[in-house]
Fold:
Amino acid sequence: MVVRHDLRIGPDDLARCGWIGEDAEYRRYHDEEWGRPLHGDRPLFEKLSLEAFQSGLSWITILRRREGFRAAFDGFAIEAVASYDDEDAQRLLLDERIIRNRAKIAATIANARVLRDWLQQEPGGLDALIWSHAPAPRRRTRPRSLAEVPATTPESTALARALKARGLRFVGPTTAYALMQSAGLVDDHLEGCWRAEP
Structure:
């Protein structure tokens, strides 16, 4: 793989954002998922949970364990995770397929309980809340280097505040911005990346 500035030229001669490194699964994620609009309360709960588990780690660590997370957390079905008890939390702490962090496991279960109660009254509420924080299209120019990609934005700070106001945990501005990138609220593909929209 050839590196050109902050882009990587893959074996297929396509330029991609340099953060993918040389990992084939990262390349697939970049090409097929990252930056593409994602909707639905359950998929966004999964994404939000995985972004929280990623805090302090690299995303590839989570990506390689995603199927394990899905199996351990019942496919991130909100009702199922909300029903977890202390025995389930202990089971998760022993599950080698996931990141075994007590605080993050507890937050995921607590977040599912908040969402269960909220979404019973307002189905689609998580989707609507998250997408209400999408920045206006073409608000900023496409980043030309990884250094130009922000870690937080005013929108991610506002989203984190709104999620916390609902009672969700492990949803700071950096995690919120990573969610916005991965769920397609923002498009941070670098200029020159084949996935960058014109």
Observations:
- Strands lie at 2-4, 7-9, 15-17.
- The CA atoms of residues 93 and 102 lie 7 Å apart.
- The mean pLDDT is 93.
- The longest strand covers residues 2-4.
